[in-house]
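Fig. S4 source data, part A: sequence.
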Amino acid sequence: MFFNHFVYIITNEYRTTLYVGVTNNIQRRLSQHYFDSQNSKKSFAGKYNCIYLVYYEGFENPKTAISREKEIKKWRREKENSLISSFNPKWETLNNQIF
C-alpha cells in the first residue's frame, strides 16, 4: 500500500519533548526540522531540537491524516508515550528508515 501523507512524532535527544506533525513528504519535513534546529530555531521543533523520528503512520487521504494528527495532539503525554512504545519499543531513531 502506498501512503502519501504521514502523521509523525519527533523528539529531542533526551526524549523529553514531543512534536506531533502531519506532512505529505516526511523526508523533506524532517530536513526542515533539522535545519531549523541548527539555525533560526523559530518553530517549536527547532527551539526544542526535536529532530529524531520515533513514530509515524501513513495515510492515503490528507483529511484522515489531519484528523489523526489533531486526535493525537489532544492526548496526554502518557498516552502518546504508549503509542510510541507500541510502535517503537526502544524509542529508536527512525529517520533513516524513511525513504
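Fig. S4 source data, part B ends here. The mean pLDDT is 95.
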